[in-house]
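residues and backbone:
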Amino acid sequence: ECKSRWISRVPGLWLALPMLLAVGSTCAAAEPLLVSEDRLKSDVERLSGFGTRHTLSSESDPKRGIGAARHWAETEFRKTGAACDNCLEIVLPDQTVSGERIPGQAHIVDVVAIQRGYERPNEVVIVQAHIDSRATDVMDAASDAPGANDDGSGCALVLEKSCGQPAQLAA
């Protein structure tokens, strides 16, 4: 029987804002996952609906910016975890960073969902996307930058993978 370990990481902010899904497996060939085309499309549309997900955009606006996107991703992981008998542990590591493309300091928060493995818990496979988006001017945190294909579609994939696997493990 193939059992897997999932670690899903959806950074709210990071310099490059990677969105990460690390999968540890105990079998040579992974079981096929059921994928919902409707859910993928809905997630891309939802991510695009935040207007911008620029690293320096609002952390506090409930409808627009990186904070709203990060909160939504956390909520999605919590819903997934609740559906699989709390199989996901959600953590929110954060740090303050500065750099050449960050005027002043920026508060960086990741949304990390961890599903512990049954066997071989130290083995992982990584699927990555990033939750941020930007306009042509990399310093423009205010203009719309919906980011459906950079990288809303990748984020939707990470959310879909975390959504499919727990249900299969419980079966």
Q: What stands out?
A: Confidence is low (pLDDT under 50) at residues 1-30, 166-171. The first helix runs from residue 37 to 48. The beta strands are 4-11, 18-25, 89-91, 94-99, 102-115, 125-130.
